[in-house]
Amino acid sequence: MKTLKIAIQKSGRLNEKSVEILKNCGLSFENYKSSLISKVGNFPLEILFLRDDDIPEYVQDGIADLGIVGENIIIETNAKVSYLQKLGFGKCSLKIAIKNTCDINEIKELEGKAIATSYPVILSRYLKANNITAQIRNISGSVEIGPGLGLSDAIFDIVSTGSTLKNNGLKPFVSVMDSEAVLISTQGMELNAEVLELVKRIQSVLRAKATKYVVLNVEKKNLQRIVDLLPGVKSPTIVPLFEEEWVAVHSVIPEEDFWQKINALKAAGAQGIVVMPIEKIIA
Ligand SMILES: Nc1ncnc2c1ncn2[C@@H]1O[C@H](COP(=O)(O)OP(=O)(O)OP(=O)(O)O)[C@@H](O)[C@H]1O
Ligand SMILES: O=P(O)(O)OC[C@H]1O[C@H](OP(=O)(O)OP(=O)(O)O)[C@H](O)[C@@H]1O
Ligand SMILES: [Mg+2]
């Protein structure tokens, strides 16, 4: 049987979460030290640790079958790959930013300006689509210092919390694209049993991450109000308690509106609420 290869970032923003998601899939491997390839002990898979810029091309050319990389790098490198799954981490936006003191308001005012970036392909495509001619200064990092040094009028880079912009006297001007880490595969590759198994495991880890397991006690007279608030995977599990008028309710709730749900449950009569993380949810 052919051993699959998956390329992940060697070090940087996506490394830790990429390793974590693979470990949560039950794969046992050594995180890279000096060797840049790690063999998984309990699955026919090898992990290649690469610079993120190289991952789309490795996958496009079939040197790696799978990869975990930011969508921004896939678009920037123009690689032809298949998207298998969004992974919910490495979320950021690519924005054009200008000096706090700059008072331009419309994108056409970028005409003739110098813009520093590490993403010249995405930027030039955006400018072209908006009929703007600007000078693109290609820089490999620390792009945000450009305007302060007089190197450029604006920058185009990754923004997440916005604190790098703020610390460099810049403000966002226009957002060009959103990005997150994605699982990709070589186009046209056979999605054999091993690939499908890996994707299934990743999806069950993601599903589990997005939900919490909740156990609470409620008086039977309030049970319907609680059940209405808790859809669960199918429907909530109700367990009798020693005190006859009370039951325990087991269910899962989505992480995204967690506190809202908890407050609503309390208001509906829930007591002794216990919340636990879920490791996997198998579809
Ligand atoms: N501040 C951020 N918040 C969230 N995601 C980010 C942030 N910065 C970068 N990313 C995402 O993580 C990816 C990797 O970022 P990183 O800064 O580690 O890249 P790099 O320095 O080019 O790494 P490499 O050494 O692998 O080339 C980016 O392409 C983007 O998708
Ligand atoms: O909006 P923020 O939360 O401040 O994040 C944005 C910054 O994060 C990234 O750099 P990183 O810190 O990864 O360093 P790098 O320049 O070495 O890539 C990116 O290039 C921005 O500079
Ligand atoms: Mg890089």
UniProtKB/TrEMBL annotation:
Residues 51-203 form the ATP phosphoribosyltransferase catalytic domain. Keywords: Amino-acid biosynthesis, ATP-binding, Cytoplasm, Glycosyltransferase, Histidine biosynthesis, Magnesium, Metal-binding, Nucleotide-binding, Transferase. GO terms for molecular function: ATP phosphoribosyltransferase activity. It catalyses: 1-(5-phospho-beta-D-ribosyl)-ATP + diphosphate = 5-phospho-alpha-D-ribose 1-diphosphate + ATP. It holds the Pfam family HisG. Feedback inhibited by histidine. Pathway: Amino-acid biosynthesis; L-histidine biosynthesis; L-histidine from 5-phospho-alpha-D-ribose 1-diphosphate: step 1/9. The keyword Transferase applies. InterPro entries: ATP-PRT_HisG_long, ATP_PRibTrfase_cat, ATP_PRibTrfase_CS, ATP_PRibTrfase_HisG, HisG_C, N-reg_PII-like_a/b, N-reg_PII/ATP_PRibTrfase_C. NCBIfam families: hisG, HisG_C-term. Belongs to the ATP phosphoribosyltransferase family. Long subfamily. Catalyzes the condensation of ATP and 5-phosphoribose 1-diphosphate to form N'-(5'-phosphoribosyl)-ATP (PR-ATP). Has a crucial role in the pathway because the rate of histidine biosynthesis seems to be controlled primarily by regulation of HisG enzymatic activity. This is ATP phosphoribosyltransferase. It comes from Pedobacter montanisoli.
